[in-house]
Design goal:
The chain is an alpha/beta fold. It has a single domain (about 1-150), classed as YqgF/RNase H-like domain (Nucleotidyltransferase, domain 5), CATH 3.30.420. The chain has helices at about 40-55, 70-90, 100-110, 115-150; strands spanning about 1-10, 10-20, 25-30, 55-60, 90-95. α3 packs across α4.
């Protein structure tokens, strides 16, 4: 089993996938499209990756405002979630993605990636950070459950 992480933007979707042990997230690619509402090729590519990597669950970054409210972009993301669920038949979990793009940009800056090149990679790294956060939280919850059941 693997889990896929997605960073859904107006013209790109950053894609990451977990290892088979659900410990680490690796960035795969950025799916680009010409117009925001043109999703057929994007969804088809996601389906190809799901099959290739044997994905059984998807984590989709939910863009919340800093005060935890949801704006227009969050609503668009939820519509994409519904399309993904219908098309793939997989569960799609929404995951708070606040500051992942900022963290991705900072990571690249610290790694010496030039400003012009950062735009090429930021969505893939953001998807990796979204998925890694979800995997870490999932593992922590499983450990808590084991500890509680052991009592």
């Amino acid at each position: 089993m693997r889990i896929m992480g997605l960073d859904y933007g107006s013209r790109t979707v950053g894609v990451a996938v977990s290892d088979s042990m659900l410990i680490t997230a690796q960035g795969l690619e950025i799916i680009r499209r010409g117009e925001e509402n043109k999703l057929r090729r994007t969804l088809a590519r996601i389906e190809e990756l799901i099959e290739e990597y044997e994905v059984e669950e998807i984590v989709l970054g939910l863009p919340k405002n800093m005060n935890a409210t949801e704006g227009a972009r969050a609503e668009i993301t939820k519509e994409f979630q519904e399309k993904l669920e219908r098309r793939t038949g997989l569960p799609v979990v929404l995951w708070d993605e606040r500051l992942t793009t900022v963290a991705a940009d900072k990571t690249m800056m610290e790694s010496g990636v030039r400003r012009e090149k950062r735009r090429e990679y930021v969505d893939k790294i953001a998807a990796t950070l979204i998925l890694q956060g979800y995997l870490d939280n999932r593992r922590l919850n499983l450990e808590r459950e084991k500890a509680a059941n052991a009592l």
